[in-house]
Model the fold of this input.
Amino acid sequence: MNKLALTLALIAGTYTSIASANSQESKIGYSLGTGFPYVLNAEIGSYSEDGGMYFQVGQSLDVGFTFGWERVISDNDKHALGLVVGAIGVKASDRESECEKDKEPSVGGVIGCAIGSAFLQTFDRKSIYGLGVSYSYSFSRAYHDKGWKMRVIAGYGEQRASKENEASASIAFRYQF
Done:
């Protein structure tokens, strides 16, 4: 329930920030894309010639939420640097499997543990939440215009399952409508 309340608070705060932006200077944009580690990315933001702010949701085997602010840093309006808070990447959890606790496993137990460990390593990935920096590049047009974009995020935060602090990164390619 706390995760749902936090998510709703983030969405409400983002919507309020975007809605209060001066519509003559900035415009609301939506984007969809893919990347790593989040294979599906959706974003809503307020973008202007100077930069923008956005709320991004990434979906892989775990869901990640990111709020970011970026500033255009080039004369051609294609490069932007920014700050992010939220999901900056994912990491497999370091949970000990039941197999490692069994001192004398049977042949069936060994095969089952090998398959289970492979699934655990593949599907037990949790988002790392923290602070980071972002770099965005607009392939076709300016930062605030429609078109293909790329964003790289790097940062440091806490992995949800293990509670360990980790450095992580992500990349997304998306189309901004």
Remarks:
- The domain at 2-93+126-176 is CATH 2.40.160 (Porin).
- The chain has one domain: 2-93+126-176.
- Residues 99 and 105 are 8 Å apart (CA to CA).
